[in-house]
Amino acid sequence: MPTAIAVTSADLVLPPTDRHTPSAAVLPPPDAQPLDAALAALDLLVEQHGHVVVLHPSAAPAAHVRRLHTVRALLESDRIALVPLDLPPLGVAVVARQLRQLSLCDFGPGIVASAARLLSHYVYAGAVLASVARLDRVPVTLKAHAKSWVPGSQFAVLANPAPQLVRLGTPGERPPAGPDFATAMVWARGRLPSDWPTRTLAPAWRIDSVQEAALPAASPAWWGTAKLVEFAAYLPDLPVLHQLVSSVRRETCTWCGIDLIGDRCGFCAAPLAPPETRAHGRPVAALGPAAPMPHAS
Known about the structure:
The structure is a single chain. By secondary structure, the protein is an alpha/beta fold. The chain folds into 2 domains: 4-120 and 249-287, Rossmann fold (3-Layer(aba) Sandwich), CATH 3.40.50; 124-236, Hypothetical Protein Tm841, Chain: A,domain 3. Helices cover 30% and strands 19% of the residues. The chain contains 9 helices and 12 strands. It is globular and about 60 Å long.
C-alpha cells in the first residue's frame, strides 16, 4: 500500500489530478473529534498503509497541533510523520496533492515525508486582497498600509517563495515575479469579486492550466481579510515531480534509520548529522527525536 497522506481539514484535499491519485485522510481538530476516535482513526491508517505523513499549516491552531502530537505519542509509533509547512492554506493543499501523487511512486515513506519541504520551494502562493492592514505574514510598508484604507484598493501579494506586494490599478502595474518553469494554477474565491489571477496573472506567468477550488476555511485568518482571492502556481506533472525528488541526494536518518532527502527526518524530526558524525554511528543525544508536545487534548 502507498504511504498515506493526511491533512488537518477537508478543504485541504484538492480533487485528484487523475483516476490514480489517491485521496488524503482528514484528521479533525479536538473540538470535532474525541481523543479515542482520533487514536483509532490514525492507528487504522498506520495499520492499512504502514506509514502516514500528516501535513499541516505551521499556522494551524495550537490545540490542533497538540492533538496531533498527543495522538502520535500515545500510539508510540515511529511510522507517523508530522510535517508543518509555512505556506498559505491553498499552498498546503497543493503540496498535499503532490505528495498524494508521489506516494504511488518508488519512494520510501521517509523520502515522501521530506519531499514536502522540497516541493514547497516550488509553490508560488499568493492572493489578491482588498486590504493589507491586518496582513502580518508578509512584510507590508507603511505606505501600503495607508493605501489599504482607500476605498476600492486591491493588492496582489505573493507569500512564497519570496514575499512580494503589488498595488493593483496603478500606472505601469506589473504582476509579482513568477516562476521560470512550467506550472499550473489553482485559485479560490473569497469575498472579493476579482478575476485578476486568471485574467492577468495566469497569462503573465504563462500558466499551462487553471483550476478553481473552494477557499480553505483558514485562508481569511491567514491573509487577514475575507475579501480575497487566493492562488497557487505549482508543478503539476508527476514525471517532473519524480525527477525533482530523485535528483536530490538521499541520506539515512542517523536516529531512526529511514531514508530521507534534505536536512531533517520527517518521522523523528532529527536533523541530519554532520558528515564527520555520520561515519561513527548514532550522533549525540541532542539529535534525538523531538519530544511530543505536552498537554493531551
